[in-house]
Specification:
The chain has 205 residues and is mostly beta strands. It is 10% helix and 30% strand. A 7-stranded mixed β-barrel has the order 4-10-9-7-5-11-12. Strands 2-3 form a two-stranded antiparallel sheet.
Length: 205
């Protein structure tokens, strides 16, 4: 049974979305310095690294701690797109969306380094978001910091989150071929939160 960890590591000074608080990871206590244990102090936004967006991200009621676990664990389909800018409806051709309630998009983003913010990432065309929402998809993932382009108006976010679709952003699918998997994705259970970092894993079926 093979597993693929599709999460990106969180570390001090890592790239963030423009305007979000910087990531701080520093030593609070250290065995090397004579303390009884090692303890880190961490500071970052709810949308750092591989993370979930709950509908509360756009002001709706459902928060991260209220997302049913069966939304985050179960069969998933990795769909590969060679798009230069936006994943389009043509990338969904041949995908049975009635069967797959969790769709993860692999694009050229996965093959790029993540040491800095890159504004030219591949995002979702609004028509794709609309199609996924209307088909009853429960979770949509992408290998970018956002499902919307940096100069967009957040349309994909609104279409998906307003329909109750949970977003899994900033995954790394560089070593994952397109195909069928089981997704295991658990965020921190932050009460009332709009989003949360998550550890996401794909198990080969």
């Amino acid at each position: 049974m093979k597993y693929h960890d599709i999460s990106v590591p969180i570390y001090d000074g890592m790239a963030t979305w423009p305007g979000d608080p910087p990531v701080g990871v520093s030593t609070h206590k250290s065995v090397e310095q004579g303390d009884g244990a090692n303890v880190l102090k961490m500071s970052f936004s709810s949308h750092i690294g591989t993370h979930l967006d709950a509908p509360n991200h756009i002001g709706l009621a459902l928060t991260v701690d209220q997302i049913p676990p069966d939304t985050l664990i179960g069969p998933a389909r990795v769909v590969e797109s060679d798009a230069a800018d936006l994943v389009r409806l043509s990338d969904l051709e041949g995908i049975d969306l009635k069967r797959w309630t969790r769709i993860l998009f692999k694009t050229r983003n996965s093959g790029r380094t993540r040491d800095r913010f890159r504004p030219d990432f591949v995002a979702l065309e609004p028509a794709v978001a609309r199609r996924l929402q209307s088909a009853g998809v429960r979770l949509v993932g992408i290998d970018a910091m956002s499902v919307d382009p940096v100069d967009g108006k957040g349309e994909a976010h609104r279409l998906l989150l307003s329909g109750g679709v949970i977003l899994l952003e900033n995954i790394n699918l560089s070593k994952v071929p397109a195909g069928e998997y089981e997704l295991i994705c658990l965020p921190l259970r932050l009460k009332g939160a709009d989003g949360s970092p998550a550890r996401a894993v794909l198990r080969e079926i």
